Amino acid sequence: MISVQEFLLRTRVEHQSLEAWIHAGWLIPPQTEPELAFSDVDLARAQLIRDLRDDFGVNDEGISVILHLIDQVHGLRRSMEALLNELRGNREDGD
Amino acid sequence: MSDDPYAILGVKREATQDEIRSAYRALAKKLHPDLNPGDKKAEEKFKEVSVAYDVIGDPEKRARFDRGEIDASGAERPRERYYRDFHTAGAQDHPYSTAGGFADFMENEDILSEILGRGEGRARFRIRGQDVHYRLPVEFLEAVNGATKRITMPDGATLDVVIPPGTNDHQILRLREKGGPGIGGAPPGDALVEIEVGPHKLFTRKDDDIHVELPISLPEAVLGGKLDVPTPAGSVRMTVPKGANTGRVLRLKGKGVPRRDGTRGDEYVTLKVVLPDRLDPEIEEFARRWQAGQQHNPRRGLEA
Are B29 and A82 within 8 A, CB to CB? Predict the structure, then answer.
């Protein structure tokens, strides 16, 4: 688990932005009690949000849409991969 | 691969910083690894472009590069793992992944198990269950002070939701593995509970601060005194100074909304002088006789 301090340092994001991102539901910290803590996934996701905002000039509404679509694409890729692995496995067994 | 950062970004050597930035943005949008999860080439190109932008995107470094003081490799800042790296099939399930993109295919799971289950029912095909969204209305004070709420799910099961103190309106709480069932032994999805905080008859909330209006009597306004003031954590005694007027705001430090770090916001008390419903003759008589009061003009400077 990653503390808030470390998280801010590694993502180079301001505390206020972090609060806003959590509020918007873009980041959902896996631990809120007794104190806020984050996982590696949250870290990578925050860096993506920062890239979108700082480098690409995407506004808040745009970021919500992009995150949602990216998560869907990832879900699809993942199941596609699982499906292909399964089909390959079946074929080898048949030989 | 070209070594010239100007060529990589496709800008002229005399381009302005603005032109360089927009060239970088245009390329980065196309090449960012998180937007091209399956494309290795894009990642390589993105690295080149980032390094080039690191050098000539910064006016000082650019000047040093133009003078030949630093080379084109500049200073590549080590990048941590990309978001997409958490989504490969081998990786652990994580809370943001969603089956929303294909949930409709999964409704008829029989077909899949028929196709995939030929090898003596091995279930290597695993898909994490879908996240389920709920809305949960909570009362103002429950959100401020924390509470445990029970929700009933569509299948009749109940779920206890712990509302942490200081929860915001529209905040989403994630309950691990309380969502839809997984396929092939994969874990269930999560329940995402959006909190809707209701209004309160006395308090309003601004971030971590509580605002409240406190009616005071005329004698209390004139003479001051110690008064009981409601706060989310019960009433506290507050000293009202002599001559406190309507609109005067007093702060009760640390009587606001609890924060995650253990501190609390403040409560702001706005005073409101209230005359009795029925004026008694004594006060009328006093107002008539009061010389200084006749001369006092609170509307001075109000002329439009």
Answer: no
B99 alpha carbon, distance to own chain's centre: 24
User: Which pLDDT score is estimated for A94?
Assistant: 44
A74, B261: Cβ pair inside 8 Å?
no
Q: What count of other Cβ atoms lies within 10 Å of the Cβ of residue B260?
A: 16
pLDDT tens for each residue of B173-217: 888 888 888 877 778 888 888 899 999 999 999 989 999 999 999
* CB nearest B81 (choices: A44, A71, A76): A44
Q: Which CATH architecture has domain B203-295?
A: Sandwich (2.60)
Q: Which of B21, B54, B96 to mutate to test the interface with A (most CBs of A within 10 A)?
A: B96
**Residue position matching structure tokens 């890729």:** A77
**8 Å CB contact of B96 and A35:** no
Per DSSP, A23 falls in state H
Q: What is the pTM of this model?
A: 0.53
pLDDT class of A85 with cuts at 50, 70, 90: confident
Q: Which fold has domain B124-197?
A: HSP40/DNAj peptide-binding domain (2.60.260)
**Exposure string over B115-149, b if 16+ CB within 10 A, otherwise e:** ebbeeeeeeebbbbbbbbebebebebebbbbbbeb
Question: Phi-psi category of A94—alpha, beta or left, where left has phi over 0 and alpha has psi -120 to 50?
Answer: alpha
Please give the helix or strand (H or E) that residue B269 lies within, else none: strand B267-273
* Total CB pairs under 8 A between chain A and B: 115
CATH value of A2-94 in 2.120.10.30, 1.10.1660.10, 1.20.1730.10, 3.30.365.10: 1.10.1660.10
Q: Taking CB atoms and an 8 Å limit, are B83 and A45 in contact across chains?
A: yes
> Does residue B229 sit in helix, strand or coil?
strand
The structural domains of chain B, with segments of one domain joined by +, span: 5-85, 124-197, 203-295
Does A48 sit within 8 Å of B83, measured CB to CB?
Answer: yes
Selected for mutation to probe chain A from B83, B130, B194 (highest A CB count within 10 Å) is B83
Q: Which long-range contacts (CB under 8 A, 24 or more apart) does A12-19 make?
A: A12/A50, A13/A46, A13/A50, A18/A46
User: Rounded to an integer, what distance in angstroms lies between the CA atom of residue B136 and that of residue B151?
Assistant: 8
